[in-house]
What we know:
The structure is a single chain. By secondary structure, this protein is of the alpha/beta class. It is globular. It has helices at about 15-20, 45-55, 70-80, 90-105, 120-125, 125-130, 145-150, 170-180, 230-245, 250-260, 265-280, 300-305, 320-330, 360-365, 385-395, and strands at about 85-90, 110-115, 135-140, 155-160, 185-190, 205-210, 225-230, 290, 315-320, 335, 345-350, 375. Helices cover about 40% and strands about 15% of the residues. The strands form 2 sheets. The protein has a 7-stranded mixed beta sheet, sandwiched between helices. Strands 8-9-12-11-10 form a 5-stranded mixed beta sheet. Helix 3 (about 70-80) runs parallel beside helix 10 (about 250-260), helix 4 packs across helix 9 (about 230-245) and helix 13 crosses helix 15 (about 385-395). The longest helix has 20 residues, at about 265-280. Pyridoxal-5'-phosphate binds near residues 164, 189, 211 and 213.
Amino acid sequence: MNNNTPDTPPYGETTRAIHAGQEPDAAFGALATPIYQTASFAYDSVEQAIARSVHLEEGYNYTRVANPTIDALEHKLADLDGAEECIAFASGMGAIAGTFLGLCGSGDHVICGVNIYGATQGLLTTVLQRWNLQVTFVDAREPSNIARAIGPDTRLIYLESPSNPSLQLVDLVAVAQLAHDRGIISVIDNTFAGSSNQQPLKHGIDVVIYSATKYISGHGDTLGGAVLGNAHQLRRIRQAQILVGATISPFNAFLLLRGLQTLPLRMRQHNANAMAVARWLQANPAVPETIYPGLESHPQHELAKTQMSGFGGVVCFDMGNDDAARAVQNATKLITIASSLGDVKSLISQPVHLSHRYLTPEERKFAGVTPGLVRLSVGLEDVEDIIADLDGAIGS
Ligand code: PLP
């Protein structure tokens, strides 16, 4: 199935997740895309070497630049997000760093949502600050805060929606409009929602980023990242990736291709399990606060309904203080304490001690990362078992 062929029927998402980007292999007809585990590709002649590497004619040279297994992954990811192009990276942080390195230069100004993954915040305030990238963090739930932060050097607006960890949303249409009107590039880290639940490019956002380590892999067995957008935007990001060497390995690309084939099915179940868990937590008097965009009580639930088709697999709850949050995690038996999310297994963590530990107390306060906040990545176990585990740990 070639998604670029004009007469391709309008296949559904689940069909495309299975077929897009993956033709039987030309050499032996292997149905699963082979792992082209090679650093370089042989040329027939010096002329062919020059044609491919200097004149960029079709064919492969070197895996840091391009590889057939990685190409298949990039095609499938682009298809699922409705993107012109995709660049697969070695990790989500590789994708984020490659985006800033490709699109920004010294002295440029970036506006960033304050509630974002801790390492992204760290990248901006340490490594990229040494390269003189200027950053303003804003509460991005209100587009006027973004508008007010725009200055003459603003090059890029970088946001997460839903955000890590507090599941805050950003009005994608409003941000895209704001950015386009002023010639600024808008970037959304769509890791928490995933392409099944939210398609930021369709709302006018320029560039979408994923930590493929999460839902795209789905099985917690590989790191990966991706950047999606139009070919023009991605040209300089591709150049940054190749020159920095943040290319994904063919083996990890194979694992992500395998995971992607069940992404829509998995996301449907993650959404359903998370909703049931969120409702159970919300009804539990021992839990002071439950945060999930699918709950009517979420302050941005109406916005969520307009830009998300499902609300994702992460549910947060605030136990009020550090001790209570620790006690819940230490008491779970089925749910595992771990840093990641998007796995088939349910994973629980306390952002203050893990994903957001590098932030200063002031930064955590501004970002709304409270000591009692618990992040639960609801997995694909039978939901009754997940709830029974929480019941044993929290009580009611
Ligand atoms: N973006 C978000 C929203 C994340 O939660 C993470 C990791 O937790 C990353 C990016 C970084 O991804 P990776 O760990 O694959 O580098």
